[in-house]
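User:
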Amino acid sequence: MTLSKNSAEILRTKNSTARHPVPLRLHLLGGASLLCLAFFAMRATAQQPAPAPAPARGAAQNPATTWTAPPGSQISVDRRSGRVTINLPTQPGDGSREQQLRFADWAAHPYAGTGPYPATREEPASLATHTIYRPADLSNTPKLPVLLWANGGCRNTSVEFTRFLGELASHGYLVVAVGRSNIPFLVIRGSIAAVADTKDANGNPQIIMDPSYLIKGLDWAIAENSRKGSALYGKVDTTKVATIGQSCGGPQAFLAAHDPRITTVVALNSSFPTANAPGMVGGNDGWTAEKLAVPAALFTGGPADTGYNGAEACYKALPATLPVLKASLNSVGHTGAYPMPELRWVAGVLSWLDWQLKGEVKAKDNFSGPTCALCGDPDWWIDTQNIP
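Assistant: Predicted structure:
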């Protein structure tokens, strides 16, 4: 079945997968993702019209306007409402034995990534609430911009993103992620609000919604950059900082971006609180997408991503004068980009970060302008605002 960008609302898929030459066994947030997005009250209405043409808001960067569900998908239509449900090929769900074994392996072994600066992972005693992903050898790296990471499900561990965060770090970034690898991955089968106070056997919280944890990570990075004897001494560009979060972590990253030291904010498979859907992560004190003052990027996994409709609505709510990227890789769904990771997804995210934090103009050309490298891939839907 082929769907247009402006077709009826896609009800949420229960599973997700990444497009890759070998079969993948991916973990999924499943029904918990539905309730996570409902928890932020960001579900969109039945129709998703394209933004009206306007000078400040650019047209779609690539001509593709349809998406074809991959082989093995299950598609159903409610005859009364006309709503479409897409289930991508079945993969192991939360709590599966496969997932447990994979996470145990990732907790024990860092991922070097494919970038020019092979990455390592650290859990410093001086920042006992976070995990650090960075180039292992800092002797020849340029100064590292800072990525403040908030986890999917607002979980207090970044273990499910081990390979993705290692990949980003290998391209010359300091990633400061909320949580530790020894905190068990919490399987969320209901609303996040219902498990917000859950603790592990050692009394550690398993859910962190407080956006100040991201700012705590920034304060640590600034201190380490100034501390003689630190491995990061003089190695960090503390003037170039992104907050970035997946799913539940998207609104968390947005709220942290209220700090004036933040350069850009990125939501993955998610969006930001808006005036019509203010959300509940940590409370927003009336600060919503309409008031954002730094460039923003919204990445989703296509119509089968539980975060897709929220991102579409958020894109329209952001200030018309703000540089914004909305990019959808339609083959990955809600969580399919992270286990391998999916390198096309990584390339898209890095293009935005390299432009915003490293000043690489050629990186911008990957998603904008006449060259628009990503636009040649029909799986990408690219829309931009105020980006030449």
